[in-house]
């Protein structure tokens, strides 16, 4: 008999534990047995966590399966990119998770491996790259363009016509002002937006900003 597909939440820490229930309910809706879902972690602290087996990556690859799928549940975007390459090299397919109450409006393009947590809204005509993490209660309004490996902490309010470049991190409760058609507000590659920041203008690549209005942090 052919083995069934095998699914993993890669990362068995805070992010992974928040993502596992989404994974479980998504598979349940598809009629997949709960035993075909595991945590994968390179430094496992136990054999099981919150009722789910924890495997090392090598073990995950050795477990009999027709296909393997992993969602990268690790907040650090550089780690996500490294693990995405690793998974691709070993034939593990990117897996997208969407909470059943996530709201996705019209003409949204969502890249592979995204995590849309509960109470997320993606507005119309939004384009999103690979391995986007949208945590609880965040929204991305109309006409935004989000790059690859972007991370939104909970409660991010990203208003319309904003461009968020690859590897940017937006902290809890940050508010990003709306851009205009043809003149989007741009959050540069690898920028970090502090918790609660109110972003009213462009943020250059690699810059950390905080406060209201958000300003670059002085280097210590
Ligand atoms: N991890 C891993 N492989 C890596 C890097 C990290 O399996 O190459 C795991 C690490 O062992 C830990 C989790 O990913 O269990 C990251 O947890 P952390 O608490 O640092 O971050 P979070 O869960 O908030 O993303």
TrEMBL record:
InterPro entries: AcTrfase_PglD-like (IPR020019), PglD_N (IPR041561), Trans_hexapeptide_repeat (IPR050179), Trimer_LpxA-like_sf (IPR011004)
Any Pfam family hit: PglD_N
Signal peptide: none
Top-rank taxon: Bacteria
Residue ranges occupied by any PglD N-terminal domain in the UniProt entry: 8-86
UniProt family annotation: Belongs to the transferase hexapeptide repeat family.
PANTHER family: ACETYLTRANSFERASE, UDP-N-ACETYLBACILLOSAMINE N-ACETYLTRANSFERASE
Protein name: Sugar O-acyltransferase (Sialic acid O-acetyltransferase NeuD family)
Organism: Variovorax soli
